[in-house]
Specification:
Layout: H1 24-40, E1 43-47, E2 52-56, H2 67-74, E3 94-95, E4 102-103, H3 140-147, H4 152-166, H5 176-180, H6 184-191, H7 200-210, H8 219-237, H9 265-268, E5 272-281, H10 284-296, H11 302-315, H12 321-342, H13 351-355, E6 360-369, E7 372-375, E8 383-390, E9 393-409, E10 413-422, E11 430-432, E12 438-441, E13 452-454, E14 459-464, E15 474-479, H14 495-500, E16 514-515
Parallel strand pairs: 8-16
Antiparallel strand pairs: 1-2, 3-4, 5-6, 6-7, 6-9, 8-9, 8-14, 9-10, 10-13, 11-12, 12-15, 14-15
Helix pairs in contact: 11-12
Amino acid sequence: MCMKKPYMFMTDIVPGPNSIGKDINVCLRPLIDELKILWNTGVKTYDQSLKQNFTMRAAIMWTISDYPAMSMISGWSGKGKMGYQVCLGSMQGFRLKYYGKCSFYGTNRIFLESNDPLRQKSNLFDNEERRLFRGRLSGEGVKELLDGLVFHHPERLIRRALCLLEMIFPQSWFDSMEHLVVHLAEEIRLARPAYWHWMYLIERLLGKLKQKVGNKARVEGSIVQRYMEEEILNICSFYFASDTIHNKVRRNEVLFGVQNSENLEVFNYPIQSLGKEGTRYMSDDERELAEEYVLLNSPEVQPYLRKYQDRVMRQRPETTPQDLDRIVKSRFKTWFKQNVDKDEVEGPRFRDLLEGPVLKVMTFETCQVNGYKFLTKSASGSGIVVKGNLHRNNLDYYGQLHEIIRLIYQGCNHVYLFKCIWFDSVGNGVKIDKNHVITIDMTSRLKSNEIFILASQVSQVYYAPSVLDPKAKIYTMVKSKSRPIDESIIAQNDIEDAFQEDRSNASTSFSLFVDFA
């Protein structure tokens, strides 16, 4: 979230057409003073969750910059024989005799293991290893923490690959940028995933700031003026109920409308159907399976379901989980209807649900739900995973979306179901190797009559074919990233409440479990 554009702030802009060089400290002085206040004194900040103010303190974790800017901030030159800051001057390059360029050729062999065969082939590397690497400055506690991580193997592969490249390419090819690759795994160890600290988002933001220039004679003034105008408009837009350019719906978002609080959650769940619409009639078996699944997985029904299961176990302690599942599917609806009819308060809420859906359903090719975009006729958009339980054992079930169905209930209510095929997660269809990589046998099938799943329960995955053998039926599972779901802002009488109120609904407040018994 902190790398999104609304949360990135321009705090300083350096005037002039030329690089400021080592004098950047003068421009950074106001920022440093404010950082000292944030750390030593703190500032009063509003806590959205607790609805109260607190003293916020902040510290700078790291900086993100390109190579020239990193040289200016660190005060260490990025040019010449000691042009890489991480090496602290211990890893020195040399200047080519006839080319005049600084090369870091021969500086990678010392990173190899002592018993590596390439350490013995010095004749291929000018018969020398250039300098010894002292390593970056770090505390012992940090070092002990990092020793247990899993980046050492990629480091070895990178070092060996660079040594093999030194046997092929000329010395002029190995400048500081090629030597930089040696330290990438260590950078990821320290700062975690690369997308938290790479430069692409900063470059994109700088490009957008440059587009704000309206007067080329006053470049910096144009950027500052347009930036301040956009920030003011962005803040003001939160006070308007209508959509604006600053709070427009993002990709795969589904807006929450004004919902009927008396209606069941399974009828109110936000989902947007797209693409070509169609209609068809379900068979009697399909209708029975769909009605049963929606009933047993509705959030408001769960307390009654647990009560019924406890009642069965008290009467028949010897009942196995498999028998309990069969009893629930065959008798729970009748017991539930009898109890609901006696409840004059909650009973009316369940009448439409107990009547069941009509045989005629609507079908769609595409829909957006849970921050994902699902497609029935696409290899990249039809992979699904759902958290389930097989006789009270939690298990991830992987499948493929076959059809998007909208069930129609009485009272103008509807429920979206996914009709799926499931891979064999119980047998050998789904395997997890020692590196926690999940592979799927696309020809395997789960032996179950459960073909439907609520759209609210599903997450999206992608099945990637093998690189070595694209025709193989063993695919690798890759999880897709969910986009957030934001509720539309509804006008309030109190404008301050409209601004402070939480509008984030990235997921539902309940957890459903699927039973494939």
